[in-house]
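Dear colleague,

Thank you for sharing your sequence with our group. We've completed the structure prediction you requested, and as agreed, I am returning the results in plain text so they can be pasted directly into your records. Please verify that the sequence below matches your submission; if there's any discrepancy, let me know and we will rerun it promptly.
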Amino acid sequence: MPPQGERCPLRNPFRSVAKSAKERSMHRLRIYIDTSVVGGCHDEEFRDDSQALMQMARNGEICLLASVLLAAELDQAPEEVQAVLPSLPKEALESVAPSEEAAALRDAYLAAGVVGPKRTDDAYHVALATVVHADMIVSWNFKHIVHFDKIRGFNAVNLREGYLPVEIRTPREVV
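Please find the predicted structure tokens below.
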């Protein structure tokens, strides 16, 4: 993970769609990933799309936002999964630190019943991505994150709390 405070180049949301490969690389999307995406690199069902997403990061097409929460979850993963993010160039990653703001938003998701108390980490992933203004969250967690009702719930709370809605997609939708 890159040192705290190092950021990928920001994308200007008011700029028209880039027309050249050079322009696209200068305005790459900042994509928050959760553990399911990293683990998906070594799962038969999700391997191709997860690895394609990592290749996009290697190529400088996107910047992956990796939180301290993700790092803690990866500490419990098999070694081959733990090796995925360190294999990327440091420019491909942006570190996301925990914050009181994200914790308060996580708690708002829980209070609204978007996810239950056993899914606090899932709510925290969404909150972290929201407060750092990620362009999108990418996950394979269909039950608690990439689910129509959950996405609506997260975004309803975001709007109520003064945040923008957040795009939530699978790697397959991005690659």
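Summary note from our side: The longest strand covers residues 62-67.

Kind regards,
the structure core
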